[in-house]
Amino acid sequence: MEIFFTDKEVNEYIEQAKSTYDQIRPDSDFNIIHDPQPCPIINFVDDKKGKWIWRCHIDTENPNPQAWSMISDYLSLYDALVFTKLEYARKTSHDLIYQIPPSIDPFSVKNKDIPEAQARDIVEKFVPIDLPLVTQVSRFDPWKDPLGVIDAYRIVKEKQPIRLVLIGSLAHDDPEGIEWLKKVKDYAKNDPDIIILSNLDGVGDLEVNAFQRVSKVILQKSIKEGFGLTITEGMWKKTPVIGGNVGGIKLQIDDGKNGFLVDNIEESAEKIIYILKNPKKAKEIGEAGHIKIKNEFLLIKHVERYLDLFEILSK
């Protein structure tokens, strides 16, 4: 559904950016403005001493035309633009467009190493582990295709017993997320082997860490995805991953080498079955995934990329 902004909404957007700038007035050598919401801030900088960078985290390959037009007026005022993928920059005319994908902190609660026995104990508080677990960790959101995940699970279940775990994060003031959670539960039809969990059930970062380690497959069947940190997290933990063949997921998964890229429900089911039936290959894929994340998507690499950009801007 196409969304159109009224003149009043556009003016409010710009005024909010001005208000934000007036409140913070940064005086740094490098100032990074994140995503479209505060993008017009640059227009109100009255004493531009440092360098200003606009960092876009979302997939903008096919944006709302009016929204893209609104922010495009401000992009030329920045010293550099940073996108997760260069393709997201579209036909933006700028002298310095830089690709810096997100990263994970390997020492955070969600990603730190934990003993296998501890991980299993944590998972068993929520789910029996007598069957192979296939897990998707993501918001309850149509772009994450949770209903398609359930369809793939049902195809697999006809051939071998498995258990599907869907883990999402919810806020009490997120009516769309709560509505989608209800849709997912209704679609699951009380199947005892579909376990739906959220932070409201006590599933936090440590629990997600454990599920990503104990699961036989991590799935992220996104239809649209800026990057997909849950893929990064799963690969870091040496768990085979299957991701939608979209957006930033394609930066991480080298299809068939350190995971699988899929375009539909049937391919998702096929790759789940392949991983479960080929444990030796699954281990190789998991190891390769870990190496890819170690080399490309840890916090230290993230900092290195920004330092490279700062060096370029300082010349």
- Structural class designation: alpha/beta
Count structural domains. 2
Looking at the structure, the CATH topology of the largest domain is Rossmann fold
Q: Could you give the count of β-strands?
A: 10
The largest β sheet comes out as: 6 strands, parallel
* Uncertain parts: none
Order of helices and strands: HEEHEEHEHEHEHEHEHEHHH
Q: Kindly estimate the percentage of residues that lie in beta strands according to DSSP.
A: 5-15%
Tertiary shape: globular
- The radius of gyration computed from the alpha-carbon positions, rounded to a whole number of angstroms, is 21 Å
| Cα separation of the termini | 45 Å
The CATH first-level class of the largest domain comes to Alpha Beta
Mean pLDDT: 95
Strand order of the largest sheet: 7-6-5-8-9-10
Number of helices: 11
Q: Give the helix proportion (percent range).
A: 40-55%
Mind telling me which CATH architecture of the largest domain this is?
A: 3-Layer(aba) Sandwich
Query: CATH superfamily of the largest domain, please?
Result: Glycogen Phosphorylase B
Fold and architecture overview:
By secondary structure, the chain is an alpha/beta fold. The protein folds into two domains: 112 residues, Glycogen Phosphorylase B (Rossmann fold); 181 residues, 3-Layer(aba) Sandwich (Rossmann fold). Helix content is 42%, strand content 14%. It is built from eleven helices and ten strands. Helix 3 crosses helix 6 and helix 7 crosses helix 10. It is globular. The N and C termini lie far apart (45 Å).
